[in-house]
DNA sequence: GTCTATAGGAGGATAGAC
DNA sequence: GTCTATCCTCCTATAGAC
């Protein structure tokens, strides 16, 4: 029972790493098993299929983004709300290993397209982008709002192997992202809550 | 000889489409052949391997970006140069089907990682990002410069299925990208050349 | 929980006829 | 240039012993 949980978690860790490095379809269950020192069949005790491993990886993220979107939809569609959405998304991204899941997701868009959980994840991200932009605004403004999410994701890509801490990355990305969604015209509403609260 | 060229081109078109929709590894040569109404073996007359199809797709892009980088490295590292880099990259992207190649490339990062041409493409894009940012500048400024490229690529993702023309997309993306690399402090140098000249 | 063994299929690639 | 036929490899997944 204890090893049960442990092995399951180790499978997830190794799978996430290999899926991100070599791609979902480029990684076989044999490789995962070998790296763990077990056989393929052992994996099937913990996960019904290969897809299920992915499902177990992304389901937490899907739920977190859904919560964020649900919150956002109850707020007024102001710049202040958008800025808070960005703050919460950023905090969540840097909490735990969540950004690693997003990297895996980004790099395997096509492979995950044929999977229920993959499509769900994609749909939620699109919902979030839609929530961030005002469809009546000029295209340039809409694009900048959407780019804010990209900014938060892109830090690891842009500042690769530099001697930069994760905290530095997060700070810079957040600052740029907030700038992209716009300067709040309504500072009263903006700071009414805890600005750096996480999602959970 | 005439059909030779034709079939080769049709293979490239179908392959690009399927690779982009379903992923490189998720698309079999059988699928490509079937859609063209030929057999797998016929593909092997035109391309030595599956990798070779990818190579034929990206090699033009690699060359174009290399030319752009070569040009950029000869210029002073000013905001004006960066703005011109963005303009040229944007013009090139919208000339022909180049942005479709980039979409394919973005969506298949992991799969292309094991291929020589894929890595070359990736390295050139990283070179371009490095050329656009000043390593001594604050992280936020560097991030914004890099994001400019993302802005040019992201338009199709952000404004999906809207009734927006490609020209509108390009215009908005270019405006945002130019804003991200910074306002030119040196307007004299900036407009010395033809501002919308393409790469070739 | 993990193993051996294997089913069952699909994929990339090649040989050789036409 | 395109076809048929085939090889070989690797994959996901399952059955059943320990």
Structural key phrases:
homodimer; 200 residues; mainly alpha; Arc Repressor Mutant, subunit A; Tetracycline Repressor, domain 2; 2 domains; 74% helix; 0% strand; elongated; DNA-binding
Compact summary:
Chain A folds into two domains: 1-48, Arc Repressor Mutant, subunit A; 51-190, Tetracycline Repressor, domain 2 (Orthogonal Bundle). Chain A contains eleven helices and no strands.
In terms of quaternary structure, the protein is homodimer
Distance between the termini of chain A: 27 Å
CATH architecture of the largest domain in chain A: Orthogonal Bundle
Number of DSSP E strands of chain A: 0
Describe this structure as you would to a colleague.
The structure is a homodimer of 200-residue chains. The first copy, chain A, has helices spanning 2-22, 29-36, 40-46, 50-74, 79-93, 98-107, 109-112, 116-132, 139-158, 166-181, 187-190. With 200 residues, chain A is mainly α. The A-B interface holds A 20-26, 106-111, 113-114, 126, 129, 133, 138-140, 142-144, 146-147, 150-151, 154-155, 158-160, 164, 168-169, 171-173, 175-176 and B 19-26, 107-111, 113-114, 126, 129, 133, 138-140, 142-144, 146-147, 150-151, 154-155, 158-160, 164, 168-169, 171-173, 175-176. The structure holds a DNA duplex (18 and 18 nucleotides).
